[in-house]
Design a protein that fits this description.
Elements (H helix, E strand, L loop, with lengths): L2 H13 L13 H23 L29 H21 L10 H11 L4 H13 L1
């Protein structure tokens, strides 16, 4: 699958929960939206684990309720393995961004802490580093 096609698929994936209860097998739109979000979070953490393998001092295992999306496996011997992983991650984040920005007609629960945690992990920001930055900003 080409990178462009993958990004289009990720864009389409984000709108699936809004297609109504017939498409989401009878569950409410808010539940379908929450499940979709949790699957994206679980998969993003898994991809980060692969991308950061050996670089994280304390590898993270995501314990959220989401189930990882079933991507086709990549060959770790492929010279473009890291590039392909990062493309998957970029597409997934695009999907997350679109999911968070679509106009859902019903109230949904947003797991803000889980999203912030994912963003901080992606940026390699720890509480210690964040605390130091806040202290430096207070001094200015």
């Amino acid at each position: 699958m080409t990178s462009h096609l993958f990004q289009l698929a990720c864009s389409c994936y984000s709108i699936l929960p809004t297609l109504g209860s017939g498409f989401s097998q009878g569950i409410k739109t808010s539940e379908a939206w929450a499940q979709q979000l949790q699957c994206i979070l679980a998969t993003a953490h898994s991809l980060l684990g692969q991308l950061y393998e050996g670089a994280e001092t304390d590898p993270v295992i995501y314990m959220g309720p989401g189930v990882e999306l079933n991507f086709s496996p990549l060959d770790e011997r492929d010279p473009l393995f890291i590039l392909r992983l990062s493309q998957r991650y970029a597409g997934l984040f695009q999907s997350l961004s679109k999911l968070l920005s679509i106009d859902v007609t019903v109230p949904v629960k947003l797991p803000v802490q889980d999203i912030i945690y994912l963003v901080c992990r992606a940026l390699a920001v720890t509480r210690k580093k964040l605390g130091s930055a806040v202290e430096i900003m207070k001094q200015d």
